[in-house]
Amino acid sequence: MEGSLSLSELLARVGKALKNEFPGAYWIMAEILEIRVNARGHCYLELIEKKPEDETLLARARATIWASKYNLLRPYFETTTGMPMKSGIKMLCKGTVEFHAQFGFSINITDIDPAYTLGDLARKRQEVINRLREEGVMEMNRELPFPAVPQHIAVISSETAAGYGDFMETINGNSHGFCLRTRLFPASMQGDEAPASIIAALDAVYRSAGEYDCVVIIRGGGSRADLECYNNYDLAYYITQFPLPVITGIGHERDESVADMVAAFGLKTPTAAAEFLVDRLLAFELRLSAYRDSIASSVGRAVQNQRAVLQGLAADLSHLSRGYLGKKSYILQQSALLMRRSIENMLVRKRDQLSLLETRNSLVNPANILKRGYSMTLHKGRVITGIEEIGPEDLIETRLHRGRVISKVEETTANHGKGED
Predict the structure, then answer these.
(1) Which residues of the chain have pLDDT under 50?
(2) What's the pTM?
(3) How many domains does the chain have?
């Protein structure tokens, strides 16, 4: 048919038109979706552009870096950025528009500006920081009270990582002899899968959170790409919400990751994290020693003061006791003198009373009465005072001053005269 073109003719015209329209090289901003290097050293990329608001795909194109250029650009990019070219990073590359009838449209990359990639990573990092600040969670983990004596430690790391070995060596070999109990929760510590793996380990710690004083996230040193995962929003947000203080020792010396910023304590290396824990125990021991010394000093001063008080009281007591005993001694002496005089007076009175009684007894003594001419009549050894006590024919005894008379009663007569008994 007149005016018709074969496919190859059409594509040749398209290629020519593109070459006329884009005759030179252009700086292009794009994100790497896929990247592979073949056996000959040629690098093939799939570049994309996303809509910033919802990351809807706006454009997609293939790109190539021929081996001769790739061998120069790759080390330059990695040395400058600290990371390899990989999926997910944005870059600013210089390239020419190519169109081949069999392979279609592609971009031949001849140069790369690594500063753009660094700027984009910094921008993403700052966006994460701004988002966390806007949500008001940036300081939440830092505001948790940190235990004075952290002894039970949950450790999130790779079991085979050198950083984990350095951490445990510092913990177990501390020169103070402190005993810290640790439990490892294994996780992938680098790459795109690291945030989800670390979050899963934090979930495992959370299920037994009551057993631990804090959590330590550690890994050894690495490239900037290896550590880029610690700027991940999900990981950082999870750390802000964690109920235990989180310590990071991620093994970097230059940049501070977002995980470091939101953790209770962001330290540079695993060894520094271990030394921090040991130093906390040492600080507590020093405080205890200071309290002990302060208490001992206070007690010593109190004892010294009380000893002085007791010595003063003892002196006062000795003085008062001597005065008191002197007064009591004088009183006792006066009492003894008075008692002696009272006893002597009483004895005199008693002697007089005895003399009077002796006189009275002498006066009423029957023998003395009989001497005066009186007699005493007895019946059966008993003194007779009335006739009713005897009867006729009774024998009675009459006692005189000198001798006695035995008589028989013949008759008794009662006296009824006045005044007679």
Answers:
(1) 418-421
(2) 0.57
(3) 3
